[in-house]
Fold this protein.
Amino acid sequence: MSNMQTAGIHHITAFVRNAQETVDFYAGILGLRLVKKTVNFDAPEVYHLYFGNESGAPGTVITFFPWPISRQGRIGGGQVGITTYAVPVGSLAFWSSRLTQYGTRFERTERFGETYLGFKDPDGLLIELVERAQGAPSQWTFGGVPADKAIKGFGGAVLYSTAPDATSQLLQRVMGLTRVGQEGAYERFQSYGDIGNIIDLNVTAMEQGAGGAGTVHHIAWRAKDDAEHALWRSQVEECGYHPTAILDRQYFHAIYFREEGGILFEIATDPPGFARDEAPDALGESIMLPSWFEANRAEIERRLPPIRAREIEPNR
């Protein structure tokens, strides 16, 4: 049994096809800040784009690998099924109006006494908005989203597991989440953080999904610092999982392991954050490369399509 607890989600990473279309949706329509433009360290011809609040604080960041020739994925077991964003109490009316203006169809659903607006991004990723009082307000305004209506960060996520009993045990015994209860198809867990802290898990085993555009690649959980991160790695190993070595992702350190329900988990450090190589007021403006790619910058930049965060005109 663990005595360690994660504060909640650090980031979520997904596959999409078109870099500019992704920027237009997440920055232009959802009003998030493009906090970092870098490359896939394993395939530097592909961007790695990060969107979050004004600083890209842990618990606010969704990241994307836009592969133009990617196959379409199939959302299913072994994945984050739905990425949940928290918005200020009283702002769902603003968001339903905004989504309608931009031609984004949504559905209202209820879960655990909360109302959700569920919709898809251009590649089919499932996103939902929920009002939550917890979490610091965003200081970022863009594209007509005022700060008092802006997405704060993650509310949490809905996990689709091929072995939900095993995933449930992992969330409690390894990650240190508290089981809140079950309602209908979902079991709910909560961490002590005030954002990215509520996880819903399907209670019925789901058929394995297929990776590709419109699916989540992994979910990352928070570690306070490098010292705690090393303890997390030991704990994961002691619990019978097979974590990777600690990897330097420039803006955090990371380990990865796959849980029994098929979902790829990462544990990532809160520091050093995104201001380590750009001024806080200039985040996301330049393509930032790790030192080992700098010698090839001209070639890498030549192969990447130009992108920018821009205001998007409503459809109506």
Remarks:
- The first helix runs from residue 19 to 29.
